[in-house]
Amino acid sequence: MSAEALDAMITETVILPAGHGLALRLALGERVTVVCDNGKQVVDTWAFAAEDGSHAMSMEHSRVENSRLCAKEGGQYVTDRREPILAVDRDASPGIHDTIMAACDAQRYVNLGCTHPHRSCADNLHEAVAAIGFAIARVPQPLNLFMNIPIEADQRLVQGMPQGAPGDHVTLRALRDVVVAFSCCPQDITPINGGGPADVTLRIERRPG
Amino acid sequence: MSAEALDAMITETVILPAGHGLALRLALGERVTVVCDNGKQVVDTWAFAAEDGSHAMSMEHSRVENSRLCAKEGGQYVTDRREPILAVDRDASPGIHDTIMAACDAQRYVNLGCTHPHRSCADNLHEAVAAIGFAIARVPQPLNLFMNIPIEADQRLVQGMPQGAPGDHVTLRALRDVVVAFSCCPQDITPINGGGPADVTLRIERRPG
Questions:
Q1: Are A138 and A48 in contact (CB under 8 A)?
Q2: Would you call B76 an interface residue with chain A, using a CB distance cutoff of 8 Å?
Q3: What are phi and psi of A168, to 5 degrees?
Q4: How many helices (H) and strands (E) does chain B have?
Q5: Which of B204, B207, B79, B68 has the alpha carbon at shortest distance from B140?
Q6: A63:B151 CB<8 A
Q7: Per-residue pLDDT tens digits for B175-202
């Protein structure tokens, strides 16, 4: 996109409250920047073709097409039909994002010993897309922005703490008309959110009108 | 399962031809052993709840529940509802199996430069379940038995060669009534099958009657 086209964008800033989710529509070329305000908050991120909620951004297909666990700045993610869906225009973070751990869900917290209902990323996704009247077929593997899961030589996966700094951010650009959804991960039992969930900021760049 | 119960099983041996797929039903406690006859052949493996083809074995949920990339001997895989579905009763191989690379599909081969139709694991799954009249909702991330995808420190994924020996095998036991499906991966462009697909053997242990 040219600098002129980006200049013409209108930027809206939204606070995504700790532990909650949000879905929004982006037209081709529009962007969203996810700001990790405290440097320790994981944001589960999904994208779907705007015209078909069963056509989703796919981490497993992106890993093959990119030959990488997660895309770098300048790279992109593809769908389960191997079609480009989101570009990484900017990654102002250590570039440590997870693509292999399923979204937390109600059962995850039961398995962790919770005896009361607990918010989850899977429920946040369902609530967020329902709020904009968008139907999805399932909860795909998310792009877990800022999530740090070290992989040991013996295949063990560690629930690490985010390695970034306050204000780290990632800018994603729509490579087609999409619905994107975010969950400010409510996990407060493992250390993946640095001990407890915190608000994050979304900066949305849209064309006027 | 007791030794007596296993003694009572009837073993059927099936050759899975290079590049082709097969689906079969296993009742709770029944087992299948996948034999990598030449030591270099990847076998994409899926499992579904017998009563609901939308309830599938999930690598992403298994990674979380196991805190490992793939289960070890004595471990198990869970579904996308975090319910146990397959146990690993025996792993007579180096234990290097992939859980992060999507099944190859027609588009994968187009992207690799193929100008003619190419068999794929995704098509093999669809054909295999159709052949037994079983409906599935999608192609889940497979358990890619014997597949060697080294993960570099910079997040790069390498298309490695299998590290095993002829006759390596893995025995999977059904933890509920299931449909399991296998694809003898037809990939012959990257080195993941040691240069070209080869037949593998399935040993199926069922209760009499």
A1: no
A2: no
A3: -50, 145
A4: 4, 11
A5: B79
A6: no
A7: 999 999 999 999 999 999 998 899 999 9
The token pair at B122 is 């995704």
- pLDDT value at residue B108: 96
> Rg of chain B over CA atoms, in angstroms?
16
Q: What pLDDT, on the 0 to 100 scale, is given for residue A16? A: 98
Summarised one tens digit per residue, pLDDT across range A45-62 is 999 999 999 999 999 999
Q: Are strands A200-206 and A52-56 parallel, antiparallel or unpaired?
A: unpaired
Written as six digits, the tokens of B168 are 């390596």
A1: pLDDT strictly greater than 70: no
On whether any CB of chain B is under 8 Å from the CB of A188, the answer is: no
Q: By C-alpha distance, which of B53, B52, B4 is closest to B29?
A: B4
Please report the pLDDT score of residue A131 as a whole number: 98
What distance in Å separates the CA atoms of residue A194 and residue A185, rounded to the nearest whole number? 11
Contacts of B154 (CB under 8 A, 6+ apart): none
Structure tokens at B157: 């994924």
CB-CB under 8 Å, B138 with A137: yes
> What are the tokens at B115?
């100008």
Whether the CB-CB separation of B32 and B179 falls below 8 Å is answered with: no
CB B72 within 8 A of CB B91: yes
Q: Looking up tokens 């949000």, which residue turns up?
A: A22
Q: Which residues of A touch B141 (CB under 8 A)?
A: 60, 141
d(CA B166, CA A156): 27
B164 token code pair = 């095993």
Query: Can you read off the two tokens belonging to residue A55?
Result: 């056509």
Residue A2 has pLDDT above 80, yes or no: no
Give the pLDDT score at A195.
81
Residues A33 and A168 sit within 8 Å (Cβ to Cβ): no
Q: What is the mean pLDDT of residues A187-194?
A: 94
Closest alpha carbon to B143 in B172, B118, B163, B177: B172
* Distance between CA atoms of residues A144 and A46, nearest Å: 9
The token pair at A135 is: 């139907």
Cα gap A48→B102, rounded to integer Å: 18
Q: Which positions in chain A touch B82 (Cβ < 8 Å)? A: 105, 107-108, 111
Per-residue confidence (pLDDT) for residue B166, from 0 to 100: 97
Type of residue found at A142: P
Report the pLDDT value the prediction gives residue B29, as an integer from 0 to 100.
97
